[in-house]
Amino acid sequence: MKTTLFCFLLSVCCLTSQSQKNVKLVYDENIDFTEQTSFIIGFEFDTKKGKIKQRGKYFDKSGYLGKVNLIVIGGKYYQGSGEVEIHPNTIKNNNNSIIFLYNHPLNKKIEIRDTIKFPDLIHLKMADSFGENLFRNVKYAMQLQARFSNGKTKMISKNKIYSFLEQNEINMEVNGAEIVPEGELRINSLSNDSLAKFVTIDYSSKDSNFRISVDRFQIADLVDVNILPTTFSYDSINKLEAVATFENGKQEELTGELLQKILDGYGIETSTKNGEIINGDFSAFQFSETQPDSASIHLKSNRINKEYTFPMLLDKSYSYKFGAKVNRSFNGYHGENVTISISETPHKKDIFTLNISTANLTEVIYLNPNYGNLSIESSGSKGQKGRNGRNGRNEFENSVATEGQNGGDGGDGGDGGNISIHLPQSFAKYIHALKLINNGGKGGPGGDGGRGGILSDDDSSHGGGSFWSNLLEALITPVPTMKDGIPGKAGRDGRNGEINFVYY
């Protein structure tokens, strides 16, 4: 009997002890630890009575885990959120792991050690979008594809590449290109690297789990550049369009800055006449009577030697506006008188020399009326508004009410300026290219009349009724006032100027 009782008690003690050892650290095991910087944890354990209890934010309960005596190596636990913040540098020293040391919540003598192993970075390569063939002097955005020991892959964008490499202690060595701060590679030009025909990117690490690898991209060498036919405008930024042909047979349409990068990257020298190439565009010089009616571009390199000639077109239009911008006079200003003297330009068909003069300006321009025009405006300015009349004085004690003052008349508009055009008979058919405006200015509006002063009402017969009747009477009975002032008259509109054509 005694033996049976002893065995029973021993078995109960063993079961209780065993149940109390059952404690488990829990977290979302589907979390991608290559993306997360923290994660939520909790604890699940057995009580003395064999029931299962839960603690921690993982179970939507308090994050206070005082009885657990939790120590985290490789991270930091926050009771408020129940999260464990991952410390990347520390976990590297712990075989890429976080170590949890804790006690059973009901028995501090039971010490437990759990380890969460993070996936190792095992391979890197440049994403396919980087391209198979690269052009010299052109920048390309980097995007890395990282592969981990758990089989998952992750794309690293250009703005995160440098921090990712530093965090994972990866050395990336680039040959045949220059790394620029924006997470891009600029391919070496011939002047920097005349021999390299490939860009190589080596990835290495002290971590034995990482597989050393190399990306290799061919630099496409240029065979030819053809500038497409076009017509240039004088004194303008003209867009160049070109087609580049490379050794691999690929053709690329080039304009603007990309064209300039290709020219510079492949050592193509440019010389020009009647203009210059700036950022891949042709900036043409101003028209002159002595310069040719064409522009030329010469391309020269170890493979290319060609010259292009393009016709120049004078298609510029001109616009002038004479007269005061701000009217500081009561009456409007008179438009300026303008004289336009037109003459044929020697040895330049359909191009005319125009001398524009006023009292304050003399300017010479060149005009091809087939493509451009001249706009002249010399209108009078508008008159200002008349003075507003003062309001009359209200009757008060010994003061007598007065009438409102009359408003003042508006200012007269200024006359339009006269325009005289002296022109040869050969320009007669191009009169439509002259747009002339010399209207008179509008007269200013008259000023507002002042309000008459208010008369007091001492009639004692008012107010003998009830409150509401007195109120109604006050609302419907007009307030007696003196006479309002009369508004002023609008000013006179200015006269239109004259336009005279004088042929010679």
Q: What does this 3D model show about the protein?
A:
- The protein is mostly beta strands and 504 residues long.
- It folds into 4 domains: 17-117, no CATH class; 121-219, Immunoglobulin-like; 222-313, Sandwich (Immunoglobulin-like); 314-504, no CATH class.
- Helix content is 10%, strand content 38%.
- The chain has 5 helices and 36 strands.
- The strands form 10 sheets. Strands 1, 2, 3, 5 and 6 form a 5-stranded antiparallel sheet that branches. Strands 32-31-30-34-36 form a 5-stranded mixed sheet, with no helix packed on it. The protein has a 4-stranded mixed sheet with strand order 10-18-17-14.
- It starts with a helix and ends with a strand.
- Mean pLDDT is 88; it is low at 1-20.
Summarize the structure.
It is built from 5 helices and 36 strands.
Keywords:
504 residues, mainly beta, Immunoglobulin-like, 4 domains, 5-stranded antiparallel β-sheet, 5-stranded mixed β-sheet, 5 helices, 10% helix, 38% strand, flat, disordered N terminus
Helix content: 10-25%
Strand pairing plus helix content: what structural class?
A: mainly beta
Biggest beta-sheet profile: 5 strands, antiparallel
Rounded Rg: 45 Å
- How much strand content do the residues show? 35-45%
Instruction: Work out the count of structural domains.
Output: 4
Low-pLDDT regions = 1-20
Mean pLDDT rating: 88
In one word, what is the shape? flat
